[in-house]
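Researcher: We're reviewing a set of sequences before deciding which ones to prioritize for further study. For each one, I'd like a predicted 3D structure that I can look through quickly. This is Laccase. If possible, include the structure in token form so it fits the rest of the review sheet.
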Amino acid sequence: MLSVISLLLLGPLGTALVAAIGPVADLRIRNAFIHPDGFNRSGVLAEGILPGPLITGKKGDNFQLNVINELTDNTMFLSTSIVRVGVAYYNFSAHLFSFLSIGTVCFKRAQIGQMDREFGPSRSVVTVTDVEPFRAFVTQCPIAAGHSFLYDFNVPDQAGTFWYHSHLSSQYCDGLRGAFVVYDPEDPYAALYDVDDASTVITLEDWYRKFDAPAPVSGPAPAPDSTLINGLGRYPKQRTVSPLAVINVIQGKRYRFRLVSIACTPNYLFSINSHSFTVIEVDGENHKGVPADSVQIFVGHIVRIRD
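Model: Here's the predicted structure for Laccase, in token form for your review sheet.
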């Protein structure tokens, strides 16, 4: 499914920074009712916002992200799991407090009942013998409600734009997703732009009135009800007008936009009204600049552009 998105840049009001966390932070996963496109529904959210908070650090940093499961809505999955897409992990260690040690059985007997209700019989219980991050029920046990998991890893020689999301069934389609940026203090493109901060990260995502069941094993994927830019959009049949994302710019300044598709299904054709730009990074890899008027971006893909 291809969706066409065009962004309008407004100015000269300047840029308003969006709060970011990292490289050491708690990430609380909780349920909340939200209406990003005008329709109110329950979501699974990191820190109670959609998309989740931007996680940032610098090349060479040691990241310590403590994911705390505070989910309470029993009409949805109560367990969770987070995967970081694109970053190679070094010196990785994992600590699932009061729950898991690497090389031990995933679930304590007292917790198997909850897993049975959510995922089927206890034969799904596995033993973790390696630390390839982080597939629920494959190389990581889901994080049960009321428990936490510390992702502790180094990023010694990698920089770029990435994303994180739930890796438990289709849970990330209910809102548990966000952008992840590793800045390079010696960025080879630093001379080509003036602004590169949290305000220039652009997320694209699909949104559904209901998407809390396991993904279908066959047949077409469900069609999204709306498309969100930085967590805001409009449901076409909604009577009330909901706000749209606005990115303020100053005339004469050069901006690096980090475009991230955190969608579940569609791919997008992205453009900026009355502007061309230069593509300088794709999926975390720098490359020679390519002039463009639009760019097609698929699920999980990242494009960095200079305007």
